[in-house]
Amino acid sequence: MVNVFRDLTVTQALLLYLAGHTRPDIAYIVNCCARYMFNPRLSHENALKRIGRYLKATRDKGLILNPSGELKIDAYPDAGSQNI
Predict the structure, then answer these.
(1) Secondary structure (DSSP) of 33-67
(2) Taking a C-beta distance cutoff of 8 angstroms, is the pair 37, 9 a contact?
(3) Residue 34 in this model has a pLDDT that exceeds 70
(4) In 3D, which of 34, 43, 80 has the Cα closest to residue 58?
(5) Which tens digit of pLDDT belongs to each residue from 38-77?
(6) In this structure, are residues 15 and 51 in contact, taking their beta carbons and an 8 Å threshold?
(7) Does the pTM exceed 0.70?
């Protein structure tokens, strides 16, 4: 249990960094999970896995500005809009 708890804490810390600096689309759900960082349950572990799957699936999405090419914007209102 100690190793699992430590792994979840490290994962939470990494996701909090991503949410605050590079991925604002996951900020709300990551902060909801962070509330239970020191008393995690299986549902929180499952939520973290789901966030990881979302990040993997949307790795190439975002606002990419290419000065020499055509401007293309793919936008989603929130992390739950793609039904991942």
Answers:
(1) HHTTTTS--HHHHHHHHHHHHHHHHTTT-SB---T
(2) yes
(3) yes
(4) 80
(5) 788 888 888 888 988 988 898 887 655 566 667 666 766 6
(6) yes
(7) no
